[in-house]
Amino acid sequence: MIPPATLPEIDPAAIAPAMDGILRDHAGVPGRRDAFLPSPAVQNHAANLAFLADGTLTCVWFGGTMEGMGDISVHLSRLAPGADRWSAPEKLSDDPARSEQNPLVFTAPDGRVFLLFTSQVAGDQDGAVVKRRISTDGGRSFGPVEPLCEVPGTFVRQPIVVNGAGNWLLPAFRCVGRPGLRWSGDVDTAAVLVSTDAGRSWTMRDVPDSIGAVHMNILPLGHGRMVALYRDRFAERVRVSRSEDDGLTWSAPEPTDLPNNNSSIQAARLADGTIAVVCNPVDATASTDRRLSLYDEIDAGTAAPVAAAAAAPAAARAAVWGVPRAPLSLALSADGRHFVRVLDFERGPGTCLSNNSEELRNREFSYPSLAEGPDGALHVAYTVYRRAIRHVVLAPGWRDRLGIGAIA
In the chain, where are the structural domains located? Predict the structure, then answer.
């Protein structure tokens, strides 16, 4: 583990002046460089990294005043191969009536680049739909906004995976509303959207016994085997399930030994086969901090869809919100069930009882994304205080340099 002395707490007032997109050496951590991505928005959250075919690293996130508000839109910035500065952000969605969230970028086998994101009114995640824009010029420009999945309550966060048969697997989670109650995540479940025709149409396949398992992250292991890791709505443990048929069906999610605080995780299978996860490795026992729900600071929007509410199962327990979102750490695993925490990117109080970025009430480090570069560098992006997106790159050879040995 990197010693705490090398990870000073970030001064909230220093963030905005540093949002120039320039990668700089991180004092005390050899081979680490950091940048705050430029953005005109007060709130910036839910980053996702992806490489384009020409080697450009893209980062997409949502920005505006506060999650759930109508001015929340998707932004994209680029880091060209060999560059040290992220480009000025491009605003790629702009529906003033809807909060557009959780974007991701996917380069299809035929070279088309897909931008996907969710769209909802206020805090009504049980009414969300998934939209897309498609680029035919390698991600330089994107076509019109189109629906991808209009089943109410469908949410995405993690990358599309192409299986051995050429089918596209889009991990999803179903935000389920209950009669008479505003959505709070108590009975959300996992699913996979499957396309057998290169993204023209999609079929929803539910993951069995998956209440509370969201943000499914699919990792191919080869020979038709896959593993999936999940965020846990009940702030207990990262969950895991497996597929033996190229991701078409899945076992019920089970707990790993990695704590989770009901905040997003992201995983990648590195070139050497190791499974890497970036997350907040704490659970509900770490603090008594609680909040009512994710959207308790904004007014309710439209009522939950009748069909979704009518199909809602009874809630055996409530989702847990407000557990601190810190530290932000890297954990490694050989099997997807047992993890070793090897590095902290950030430490601090992690306070997440408010989403208010204008008044700087939030101290969370959250919603990580990670991507291994073709040169073996490890790229990570994440939310800092719901004010900015930070990009961290660990130069090739990072495991040896940081003294991280083999993971059994």
Answer: 4-401
pLDDT score for 310: 47
With 0-12 / 13-18 / 19 or more C-beta atoms within 10 angstroms meaning exposed / middle / buried, residue 255 is: middle
| More confident: 180 or 58 | 58
> Could you identify the residue written with the tokens 């897309």?
132
Mean pLDDT of 7-14: 84
Whether the predicted pLDDT of 8 surpasses 80: no
Q: In 10 A of CB 55, how many CB atoms? A: 13
Are the beta carbons of 279 and 265 closer than 8 angstroms? yes
Nearest to 59 by CA among 269, 371, 387: 371
Residues with Cβ within 8 Å of 63's Cβ and at least 6 positions away in sequence, in order, are 39, 40, 41, 42, 43, 44, 45, 72, 73, 75, 89
Return the SS3 of 330.
strand
- 4-401 — its CATH code? 2.120.10.10
Return the residue matching tokens 């919100």: 321
Question: Both tokens of residue 390?
Answer: 């930070």
Q: In which region does residue 403 sit, left (phi positive, over 0), alpha (psi from -120 to 50) or beta (all else)?
A: left
Query: How far is it, in rounded angstroms, from Cα 60 to Cα 381?
Result: 10
- With vertex at residue 125, the alpha carbon angle to CA 214 and CA 213, rounded to the nearest 5 degrees, is 10
Answer yes or no: is pLDDT of 120 > 70.
yes
Integer Cα distance of 105 and 392 in angstroms: 19
The answer to whether 207 and 304 have CB atoms below 8 angstroms apart is no
CA angle at 398 for the pair 395 and 404, rounded to the nearest 5°: 170
Containing 49, the helix (H) or strand (E) segment is strand 43-51
Average pLDDT, stretch 186-191? 97
pLDDT-derived band at 311, boundaries 50, 70, 90: low
- The residues that bridge with 232 in the sheet, in sequence order, are 213
Other C-beta atoms within 10 Å of 269: how many? 18
How much is the pLDDT for 299?
78
The pTM assigned to this predicted structure is 0.96
Check residue 55 and give its pLDDT: 98
Helix (H) or strand (E) run with residue 307 in it: helix 306-310
CA angle at residue 269 from 172 to 375, to 5 degrees? 125
H or E segment and range at residue 366: strand 365-372
Q: Are the C-beta atoms of residues 210 and 240 closer than 8 Å to each other? A: no
Q: In the Cβ-directed half-sphere of 368, how many Cα atoms lie within 13 Å? A: 29
